[in-house]
């Protein structure tokens, strides 16, 4: 069974940090572009950050998270990460990871969005 499983969400104070992980089972992430998306209550799902397949040499970040979030991948562990620093209340959302085999570009995956598989999501709450 092909699965993506997110972990690492939780409650954090404004200005704090959290690290999310997206682990794949049943398939190898090396050949997939991976993205992190989020959906806040009453809002549409938005692409946060995406990273290209294999070496992860190409990345995309939404303007709202540039300079604060970092996406990375460890193919040996079949896992993609999202390090979130300087968190703000507006970052509160359910965060999902997704995998796409042929999204053309990382920006396309995040903006359109394009995905073949989705995880179940993990809640991130930024509040004092």
Write the layout of secondary structure elements.
Layout: E1 3-7, E2 10-12, E3 18-25, E4 33-39, E5 46-51, E6 59-61, E7 69-74, E8 79-84, E9 93-100, H1 106-111, E10 117-118, E11 122-126
Parallel strand pairs: 2-11
Antiparallel strand pairs: 1-3, 3-8, 4-5, 4-9, 5-6, 7-8, 9-10, 9-11
Commentary on this structure:
The protein is mainly beta and 128 residues long. It contains one helix and eleven strands. The strands form two sheets. Strands 2, 4, 5, 6, 9, 10 and 11 form a seven-stranded mixed sheet that branches. Strands 1-3-8-7 form a four-stranded antiparallel sheet, with no helix packed on it.
Order of helices and strands: EEEEEEEEEHEE
What is the CA-CA span between the terminal residues? Answer: 39 Å
Beta-strand content estimate? over 45%
Total count of helical runs of at least 4 residues: 1
Helix/strand/pairing category: mainly beta
Mass-distribution shape: globular
Q: How many beta strands in the DSSP annotation?
A: 11
Largest pleated sheet: 7 strands, mixed
Low-pLDDT windows of residues: none
| Radius of gyration over all CA atoms, rounded | 13 Å
In helices, the fraction of residues equals under 10%
Averaged pLDDT: 96
Distinctive features:
single chain, 128 residues, mainly beta, seven-stranded mixed sheet, 11 strands, globular
